[in-house]
Task: inverse folding
């Protein structure tokens, strides 16, 4: 009874916590409330009947408190150290791997519940066990592969091969078949054990197979989707042990991940189906148009003279800025421009970076006040009034082909209309194509000037020019 | 009957989650995701109950012991890194 009341309190705190995450001013308090809810739920778990009963066992090795507290201590130490050491550019990898851990934990809980009484599992509980094993395993291996792709331990390219869809179809059918056998009443205990192990194996392979054909550029969506799936796995685990706090928290996480996934898809004008199954970016489509006009390059000295005279400057940062670790010098340049009398803003595309909102975190890390950050919808109407747009390490999100070239793979994606600015500076490492391998006609437009070289070095040089005034 | 109640709770909570998240601005999507990621570690509650159940045998105990560690990393790491991120979101006047 008392722990159920504690679980209700925990749920309320989770809901209040998430609600407060909708404004930067209240977000920290929201995170604190949610963490408090978690603490209450964990303490309440120690008062569950099963745990309390284990207190009286003669052998201390049989005492649940010993093992639970030891495991919580180990996990806490690892979690604390890890969260302190991770770089902000590495957030997507971190979230991916944590998703994987959550999925694996739910998977293990389901398996333990099965081992408890393999012969006499009720049909409906058996169904929950099978579904938790399926979703938990997919979340685990899918997240591990996403982590590998994001951290570039393995190629970020979409991997597509002949018969891939058939293999995935067979895996799906086999998983469904195993689940059906598993929930059938009166199945022999040994058969059941074999079936659940096969189901676990299939699900683990399935997680890999689903993420394999998805390219690195689509990882923001995959991370959201896996986040959602990890929530579903938690909720399903809650059904097995009839625990309301797991169900509520899991449903909240599942729904929020799903919402973010849909928001991301909308920002790229793609459907989830297209994203998961098309192998986007595996074979860079060659535009039917020839290469545009030859891009014009200018030196940083000339760029400085133009910037000094500019009345308004908008930065368009992409993941390339984070890779070059240029956010701090960008902030310095923004300050110099403001001191020179220019109005400075930053416009962030919803899918810039490697996870939803990632770019905002990187800019916040560089101490750029969030009032200067504009969304695409806020900034686009004002773009023609803007003197200079500086594109740093962004490519597809400013590519006009999305608006005017039906043969382009990104056709239909809403973009930041940087090309409408009076002058566009594009900071780019070299003359090649970007991450997605799509030709960008912005580079050849008459109002575009290229500044080649490492983004950080270029921005530092511009800051240097301002400083030498 | 109990299963129906649990399903009911699940559906209501999912709709509530949808409503809560749809109001979060895009600039907070990363902290939102890492915060909900931490909440997802609630499976630690299930694992704590499971570790104490010796009816699942030694294997069950080892598995749930590992599950607690993994879920705790998810919870503790998730909340701390969210707090780290959110403390960087500040207004201009806060800094002056």
Result:
């Amino acid at each position: 009874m008392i722990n159920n009341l504690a679980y209700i309190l925990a749920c309320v705190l989770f809901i209040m916590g998430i609600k407060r995450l909708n404004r930067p001013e209240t977000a920290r308090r929201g995170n604190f409330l949610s963490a408090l809810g978690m603490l209450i739920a964990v303490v309440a778990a120690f008062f569950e009947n099963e745990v309390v009963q284990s207190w009286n066992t003669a052998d201390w090795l049989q005492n649940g408190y010993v093992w639970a507290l030891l495991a919580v201590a180990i996990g806490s130490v690892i979690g604390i150290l890890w969260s302190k050491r991770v770089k902000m550019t590495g957030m997507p990898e971190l979230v991916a791997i944590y998703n994987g851990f959550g999925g694996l934990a739910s998977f293990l809980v389901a398996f333990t519940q099965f081992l408890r009484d393999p012969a006499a599992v009720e049909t409906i509980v058996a169904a929950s066990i099978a579904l938790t094993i399926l979703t938990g395993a997919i979340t685990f291996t899918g997240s591990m592969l996403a982590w590998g792709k994001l951290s570039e331990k393995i190629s970020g390219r979409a991997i597509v091969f002949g018969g891939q869809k058939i293999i995935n179809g067979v895996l799906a059918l086999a998983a469904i078949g195993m689940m059906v056998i598993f929930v059938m009443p009166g199945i022999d205990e040994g058969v059941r054990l074999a079936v659940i192990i096969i189901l676990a194996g299939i699900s683990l392979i399935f997680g890999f197979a689903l993420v394999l054909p998805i390219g690195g550029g689509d990882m923001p969506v995959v991370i959201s989707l896996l986040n959602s799936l990890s929530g579903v796995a938690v909720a399903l685990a809650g059904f097995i042990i009839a625990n309301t706090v797991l169900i509520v928290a899991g449903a909240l996480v599942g729904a929020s991940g799903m919402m973010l996934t849909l928001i991301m898809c909308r920002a790229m004008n793609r459907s989830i189906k297209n994203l998961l199954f098309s192998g986007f970016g595996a074979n860079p489509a060659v535009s039917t148009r020839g290469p545009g006009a030859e891009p014009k390059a200018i030196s940083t000295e000339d760029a400085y003279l133009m910037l000094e005279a500019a009345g308004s400057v908008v930065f368009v940062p992409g993941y390339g800025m984070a890779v070059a670790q240029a956010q701090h010098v960008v902030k310095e340049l923004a300050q110099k421009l403001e001191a020179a009398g220019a109005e400075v803003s930053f416009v962030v595309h919803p899918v810039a970076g490697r996870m939803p909102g990632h770019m905002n975190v990187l800019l916040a890390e560089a101490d750029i006040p969030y009032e200067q950050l504009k969304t695409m919808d806020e900034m686009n109407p004002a773009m023609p009034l803007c003197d200079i747009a500086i594109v740093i390490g962004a490519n597809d999100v400013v590519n006009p082909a999305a608006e005017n070239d039906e043969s382009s793979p990104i056709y239909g994606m809403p973009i930041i209309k940087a090309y409408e600015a009076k002058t566009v500076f594009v900071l780019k490492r070299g003359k090649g194509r970007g991450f997605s391998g799509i030709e960008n006609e912005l580079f050849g437009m008459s109002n575009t000037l290229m500044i080649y070289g490492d983004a950080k070095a270029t921005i530092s040089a511009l800051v240097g020019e301002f400083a030498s005034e | 009957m109990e299963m129906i109640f649990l399903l009911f709770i699940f559906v209501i909570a999912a709709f509530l989650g949808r409503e809560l998240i749809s109001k979060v601005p895009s600039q907070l999507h990363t902290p939102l995701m890492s915060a909900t990621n931490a909440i997802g570690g609630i499976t630690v509650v299930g694992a704590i109950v499971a570790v104490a159940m010796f009816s699942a045998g030694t294997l069950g105990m080892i598995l749930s012991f590992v599950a607690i560690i993994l879920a705790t990393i998810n919870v503790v790491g998730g909340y701390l890194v969210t707090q780290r991120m959110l403390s960087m979101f500040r207004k201009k006047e806060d800094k002056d």
Remarks:
- Chain A touches chain B through 118 residues (CB under 8 Å).
- Chain A is about 60% helix and 5% strand.
- The longest helix of chain A spans residues 123-150.
